[in-house]
From TrEMBL, chains A, B:
Protein name: Phosphoribosylformylglycinamidine synthase subunit PurS
Sequence similarity: Belongs to the PurS family.
NCBIfam families linked: phosphoribosylformylglycinamidine synthase subunit PurS (TIGR00302), PRK05974.1 (NF004630)
Organism: Cereibacter ovatus
GO BP annotations listed: 'de novo' IMP biosynthetic process
Annotated keywords: ATP-binding, Cytoplasm, Ligase, Nucleotide-binding, Purine biosynthesis
Pfam name, any one: PurS
Signal peptide: none
Protein task: Part of the phosphoribosylformylglycinamidine synthase complex involved in the purines biosynthetic pathway. Catalyzes the ATP-dependent conversion of formylglycinamide ribonucleotide (FGAR) and glutamine to yield formylglycinamidine ribonucleotide (FGAM) and glutamate. The FGAM synthase complex is composed of three subunits. PurQ produces an ammonia molecule by converting glutamine to glutamate. PurL transfers the ammonia molecule to FGAR to form FGAM in an ATP-dependent manner.
């Protein structure tokens, strides 16, 4: 079973990576970019077969390791 | 209009970040993780109003800046 986790900075948190990408896109002539936020995507290949249990386990992984929940939010999708 | 870009290393390319995450999850007691691949997610806020044109422009952004197409693959979603 595969799971996809997105980890993004929370909305109020400054995202210097995103700002750098936005600036670089402007420099390259892409003027229609109003904002950029950059985050991480983590694809997990799980041996679990029960989707609900797998999602619960991945949420614990996020809380413990994959996301810094002080400044980051995460979403879990079971594929 | 919002677009979401995923940039992942191509399948044959070694992913040391993913391996590190997999190892760390194992150390924390998550034994059911067979593989981990880590990539980037980039959320773009675009002023364009035409979805097809926006997707085409974001693909050019990926080719020029957001992805290194020698070792990375990307997907574009218009949200």
């Amino acid at each position: 079973m595969k799971a996809r986790v997105h980890v993004m900075l929370k909305d109020g948190v400054l995202d210097p990576q995103g700002e750098a990408v936005k600036h670089a896109l402007g420099t390259l002539g892409f003027s229609g970019v109003a904002g950029v936020r950059q985050g991480k995507v983590i694809d997990l290949d799980l041996t679990a077969t029960d989707a609900a249990a797998a999602e619960a386990e991945v949420r614990v992984m996020c809380e413990k390791l994959l996301a810094n929940t002080v400044i980051e939010k995460f979403t879990v999708e079971i594929l």
